[in-house]
Amino acid sequence: MVALKITNVRQFMEKFLKGGDFDSFLLEEAVVSTYNTFHIDGRQNRAFYTAEEWDDHEIRPYDFSLWKTMRPLCFDLIKGTHTPTAFRFVLHLMPDYADSILRGGETNVTAEQVKAFVLTVKYDGAGLTLVTGTAFHTFLPDRTPDALWDAALKQFLSRKEIAFEEL
Asked: How far apart are CA 121 and CA 114, in angstroms?
């Protein structure tokens, strides 16, 4: 786990909410506090789909919603003349990318053992912080995937020209 302070919040928010830079993520949860506090559960709602649609991996490939489809809604909640008082987005890297993260180092952990590479984007009124995390399907003593995810995120931010400081 690593905590990173974003040094240019405006630039980050442009890329996060308007651009496609984070479209390789799924939304687990969003909480946005403006004139109200809005809670979004990113888990897809089984009752909305027919049984066939629910089981069709082309229609519903993930349990969580794609960030790129939720991004416009979240942008609408945040945009305006007033800065939000706070927000928190919990994102998961799409499982399709887990192998590429794990190939970056020496580990016996497989993509099937990783439940999620998590990124929490948190604004508290004073600053914006990114926090990484790794969830596994079962306990694993090998912490290498955590370090690989931390390094991959830092490389990702650098490639996207998003300035940050490690906390």
From this structure: 20
User: What is the torsion angle, in degrees rounded to the nearest 10, for the CA atoms of residue 17, residue 23, residue 29 and residue 33?
Assistant: 0
- Give dist(CA 90, CA 118) in Å, integer: 7
pTM exceeding the 0.90 threshold for the entire prediction: yes
**For the segment 68-109, what is each residue's pLDDT rounded down to a tens digit?**
999 999 999 999 899 999 999 999 999 999 999 999 788 999
- For the chain, the structural domain boundaries read 3-166
Buried-state track 46-78, b at ≥16 Cβ within 10 A, e below 16: eeeeeeeeeeeeeeeebebbbbeebbeebeebb
List the beta strands (DSSP E) in 3-85: 3-6, 25-33, 37-41, 65-66
What is the per-residue pLDDT across 118-131, written as a single tens digit (0 to 9) for each?
999 999 999 999 99
